[in-house]
Write a structure and sequence with these properties.
Blueprint (H helix, E strand, L loop, with lengths): L12 E6 L5 H10 L3 E6 L5 H7 L3 E4 L25 E4 L1 H9 L3 E16 L12 E14 L5 E7 L5 E6 L4 E4 L11 H12 L8 H15 L6 E5 L3 H14 L3 E7 L7 H11 L5 E4 L1
Helix pairs in contact: 5-6
Protein name: GMP synthetase
Pfam family, one: NAD_synthase
Keywords: ATP-binding, Glutamine amidotransferase, GMP biosynthesis, Ligase, Nucleotide-binding, Purine biosynthesis
Length: about 290
Amino acid sequence: MSCGWVPYREFDTVLIVDFGGQYTHLIARRVRELGVYSEIVNYLNFDRSVVEEVRPRVIILSGGPSSVYEENAPRVDPWILDLGIPVLGICYGHQLLASMVGGRVERGVGEYGRTRIRIVGRDPIFDGWSDEEYVWMSHSDYVAWLPEGRAKVLAISLDTGYIAAFRLVDRPVYGVQFHPEVAHTPRGRKLLENLVIKIGGAKPRWRVENLVDAIVQEIRSKVGEREKVLCAVSGGIDSTVTALLVKKAVGDRLVAVFVNHGLLREGEVEEVLSTLRKLGIEPIYIDA
């Protein structure tokens, strides 16, 4: 998936398969807030080689705008169920897992916004949850039926009776119709913590500082001791962060260049120069 230093080779990782959900990056953020590294992969690029490379502790299937019963709906192969690691499907991922084990997904009345659910089957993923909790829903399709003996219902929606959560009876494969990653699901963080750390066994050692140190070391390893590094800066976040990382790596051998192309707002040149100087970067300023 990547070259050079990559965090998943050093830190326990959660792999998130993206089906085009609006909250996919929020899922990744919530996992990292637990101190565990997360990596997103588009479902089209998800295969055995990715799993073998990343060696994830947990796999999460995101939500998405599709319906599982549509022709050419996005899917993953059934071998994901036999990996022996926890899998969680959220919203579309929940429906996809249900269909993969022989369940039935149908169009329903839809649930949108704050919804109350009842826990009907206790499981470690719901440790710390009360018997009834509010969650955030955003779906039209729902899991109408699950095969007895293959899957166990863990929670239902009080208003509709829809299946809000389930798991396979013989392995840690879960589906939740609601979105645990959003703030409107108050116990959502606890559910993700239960899944990733308690069930998945991931060690919470990831910090963003780990990434900064690793990038700085990689820059140093690629730049010769007497070489200089030319870095164009615009004042935006990307180029400023890049310049700061290079500065940390090579010190005064950084040659930063800031070009005024005439399209900046009034006072923006002075603001950019001031910000860079506060960070210890003295750019070459060119008024073009």
